[in-house]
Amino acid sequence: MVRLCYTSDTHSYVFPYDFVKGRPEATGYMVLSSAFCDDAIIIDGGDVLQGSPLARFESKQGKSLLYSARAFNAAGLDVFVPGNHDFDFGYERLFSFVSSLDASFVCANLADERGLLDVKPYVIIEKNRERVLITGAVTDYVNVWDKTKLEGLRITDSLSSLNRVMEETEDLDVDYKVCVYHGGFSRSEKGILRENRAYEIASLGFDVLLTAHQHEIIPPYMEGHTLTLQAGSKASLYAIVTLEKGKEPCAEIRKPVPPEMLSEKMKELFESDDTFNDLRAYLEQRAGSVDGSLEDRSRIHSFLYGSSLADYINDLQLSISGAEVSAASLFNNPVSLSGNVSMLDILTAYPFSNTLAVFSITAAQLRLALERSACFADCRDGRVIESPLFSPGKDERYNYDFYRGIAYSFDLARKPGCRVVRLEIKGEDLLKNPYRKLRIVLNSYRSSGTGGYDVYKDAELLENISTDIQDALIDSFQSEAVKVPEKTDFQVLYDGQKL
Fold it and tell me: What is the Cα–Cα distance from 337 to 423, expressed in whole angstroms?
């Protein structure tokens, strides 16, 4: 019998501590790994180098030996498969991280043109006299999001790369074949590059398919003849898979142990230096203040009435870019900023490191983008609810965009795709002038057209701006007390009546 312990999308959430609540918590890779089974094969499915205060702190400090690498090594990590965010900072940062790992670096669809990464298409691990082949792949969409940061690297088609592994290893003496895919499930994606291809990969014949990327908790189930699952994000849960000859693979998703039950190796790591205290001091330092409140009160409230936090981010993007229109997304969990604001407050409100891009678009193209955002909610029985059509199977509030520089209205009584009933810029009716050219600024995630905004793929790119939005937010708070911006002229209607 062989057991696998699997995590993904930890985003460098390592410490057993909730910095927002200011107390120890059963979260983070330290407590997850303390619960791992003895003698298990330990696997991580990527997305480590971005997305948490620790990741940003280490990046700004220029640290080469990252704390996550030290935690993985202390846990005995056997296999690491990269996620899309592990490519965000280019070749050198990825090389520094993976060369610090004791684990095998596995990715069948990653070609290293410099030849330094020692990346393998698969590994075979023998445990308890049984042989387990482990392969992996990262979502093809790295070519969309990170194409400017892939110098020296090449991401090939995930499905064909994994199929090649299956064909080349057909005659090998192994007991089980396991695939780790940093991507998830979708039946609606089209085109040459697709973000989530787990259904196709499951058809290749693996015994186990461990998925990632979508930050979903997908309980173990059989997709055809393949056991598959997804175990959430931010090191809050892990999966344990049991492989036993003569039986179908089985698995469960488990919670971590309490923070006081750290393993001896994790206690030793935690106490080995001042990283935790240095990070806490960094996060607690005052970044500035708000004269009032930048609000993101709730998801539905912000959809109906707008968000002053989104307005502020949009104003910042406009001032940096000189564009006429800005689109900004907020994240799944609403956060408001008021009074004295710490570094942690800002990084909680805007947890990812995005840059900017400016496009030339027509008013007709802008309307198509607005129609995508207008699908976020529906009105049923007099109640406004989030629409399952907007993010089927995944929480994608971050794909709802707030706009600035225009006046606009949605009517939820209309069918999706026909809900934009007002679109103006400085009093000009853009619905009557669909060919009017506009300059719009977007973050680097949205500029790829991801999230249902294919319209931007056909727009003319005018400029890439390397300014980090997190840095810009912090700088703006440190320069003077932040003023709450005037509200965007935006309305949500139902059959012409304001909700």
Answer: 29
